[in-house]
Structure formats: C-alpha cells, structure tokens
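Teaching assistant here, posting this on the class forum so everyone can see the example we discussed in section. The complex has two components, and the goal was to see what a joint structure prediction looks like when all of them are supplied at once.
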Amino acid sequence: MIAVVDYGMGNLRSVDKGLQKVGRKTLVTRNPEEILECQGVVLPGVGAFKDCMRNLKKYGLVDCLYRFIESGRPLLGICLGLQLLFTESEEFGRQKGLNLIRGRVTRFPLLKGLKVPHMGWNTIKKRKESPLFSSIKDGSYFYFVHSYYVIPEDEDVIATTTHHGVEFTSSVWKENIFACQFHPEKSQKLGLEILKKFGELSEKGC
Amino acid sequence: MLAKRIIPCLDVKDGRVVKGINFIALRDAGDPVENAKTYEEQGADELVFLDITASWEHRRIIREVVEKTAGQVFMPLTVGGGIRNLEDIRFLLKAGADKVSINTAAVKDPSFVVRAAEKFGSQCIVVAIDVKRVRKTDELNSNIPSWEVYIYGGRKATGIDALSWAKRMEASGTGEILLTSMDRDGTKRGYDIELTKTFCDALSIPVIASGGAGNMEHILEVFTLAKAQAALAASIFHYQEYSIPQVKEYLKKRGVNVRI
C-alpha cells in the first residue's frame, strides 16, 4: 500500500490513478497512523510553499513524515513536495521547510525572453544513476510547472538536472528520499515508468 | 530545452465532444475520454476541454467527464467554460483538472484571478482572452496595432485594450495566457502573428496561441515568427487533416524543439 498524502493542496487524483495504473494499491489520506502503516509515501503538492507547510503542520504530518523517513521506507516528493523537503524557501520571504535535505528553494532569474512559470515538457540529464531512472534515457521529456527550483548544498543528492535559463536540479535521491520537480503523473509513459519503479521500491524496500 | 507545446482543444457539450476526432466519432459519438486517450497515444503535450454545456446541470456533467479522463490519461488537462467562482475551480481541480481557464469571470471581477492564484497557485490559473483587432491611428496617422477584449464567448465587446488587460492579468498572478484571435478563429488562414508576437514580447508568462490554424506551416510560423510557447488547434486535428506526430515531425525538421 502506498499513501498519497492529502493535505489539501491540489490535484491528487492523477498521482493516485497513476500508481493504480502501474499496479499499486493506494490510500489517499492525511491520517498519520495510516501513513505510518504504508510501504511507501508520495508527497505531492502544488500552490504556495507557505500554505503547504502550514497545512502539513495543521494536520500533524511533519512528525509523521520524519518518522516515516527514519523507518527507511521510500518517500517520493513531487513538485512542491520536492521543495518542501529542503531547509528553506525564498517564496514570499523566508519560509522554513522540512530540512530533510539541506539547501534552499529560489526563484528563476528575471532574464529577457525567459518565461516563468517554467511550464511544459523539458528534458532531463542524469547526474548519477538512481533507481527511479534506471530505464530512463538522458534527454527524455517530463512535464514541469513551477516558478521556483531547489539548490541542494550537497551536490551528491542531485539525480538529474534540467535547463531553463539556468541548469537546475530536476530530481534528487538521498537514501530513501526520492523527489522530482516534474510531474511523473502528468508525463505519460515515462512518468508512469517512474511511478512503477517507486512502487517496486516500496514493495521490496530500499 | 523547453519544448514547444501542441495542444488540441475539445469542445464538450452535455458530456460529449462536439468536434471530435473523425475516426473516434465513427466508433463512438464523441466520448471525451476516448478522444483524450487517442490524443495521448498521438503524443499531444496537453489537452484543453472547453465546456459549452448550457444547462444548469453543467457542473455535475463536466466533473464526471474530468474525473473519467484524469483516471485514464496522464497528461496535463485544462478545463474552461462557465467558471465563475473559487468553488467552481476547487470542484474541477478535485475532479482531476490541472488547470482552469477563466475568461468572462475575470473581466467582470478582476480580483477573482488574484484570489484564485493565491488560493490554488498560479500554475493552475489560465486566463483566456478573446480579442478582435481594432483600427487605431496616432497623430501621424500611422497604424498602431491594437486589440479589444470580448467576453461571453465572443458575443460582447468590452472596450478593454487586450494588451493592457493581459499585463494586468499577469500581475494578478495568472500562470499563462490563452490568446484567441476572433478575426482568425475558424478561418484556417493562420494564427494572427502580429497579435501573438506583440503579446509574447510584452509578457513574461507563457502564451498559448489560438485561432486560425489551417495547416502545419501556420503552426511553424506561430513558433518561429511569433515565439509562442504553445499552439492550440481544434479542427485540423479533429478532422484528421493532420496527425500530431506528423505536425511534430514537420516542426522538428525545421528546427523547432518539440517532444517526440
């Protein structure tokens, strides 16, 4: 069973259906006890960083996520769910994140001709081999929609990078924490491939 | 590098596609989910549903359509038509839409877009602007291109200058502009390049060009000359004049970065 954390932020239906499509049982929930019983957790998220953190706290999910990570089971953060894992974000002043990965979240620079939000299909470049990307080739397209991106302190956590005005971190892997800036649940076949790999990791353990 | 997007648009009335893909229409009289699946197989980059249901039941019907589609199609889905308040947006996002497109309601109450972007994030708010060219001359009698905003599906002129409106919507937090030339819509004479380029140059958010696509060259032009981030088209795909892979191959050969 994989928990899709429902903390009132955005469209959970696609990620839920995506996991089911690749053969996983899912539970859309904000109940910490239920989450802690699952084999894997997906932390989605769209909207504003501050609202997401506030809701995680409001539903008592922060400790739950720490405990889940400590247990060694895999977590997949998607989009804002990636950004929330970091130390702090510069979105609307400084906002503290979960600090599971050291680093900050910053906005795309103002460059002439550079459209922000970064919206649409862009390619990834692998920085290291990671279990979720084992069958994905360099130059594969994934669907992005975001105005902020993460800068990890420790570059070893970077799994892939993507170019949009700047070369930014488009996915990370640190022990049992996996997270991507793009939306696998919106990236057709290759996106489902990533969800499938995450489902396998949840079943086998990482 | 970010790819240029090809976005088919489907008109949905009473839960059925009104302008469908030809061969699908033969098999099934325009089921939106079947149409969406076909476009996904063809490699469309996103999909837009425009709900033109007039009955009071329209919210329930479009919700069912979105729920079924989002359960089977794994690409971004935008839904527009008749969105009046935050509850309408919540309703559609919960059903599985990724973005909503707002048109008339934004003109009637511009603060609605501010509230919507704050509540749900800029990434899911698209402002659709339907425009018609107006003739204007300055003191030197030279032509200044300008466009006027129309609402209620193009039936009512507003007197609002479209470029100022788009800039205001950008400042209000909309994530994207869907720009439709009413002069070109349905004509198959090509996108209004001057219009699209003016808006793309002036805005820092992405612009989806719409209205007038009749062949592959038109799509090439709107990317290379007008620098649009995405091209929306309806009839050229629905009636199988061109398939999406065919258009993408054509663009790629001519140096446009598309996802194949």
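For the discussion questions: Chain A has one domain: 2-204. The first strand of chain A starts at residue 2 and ends at 5. Think about how each of these relates to the inputs above.
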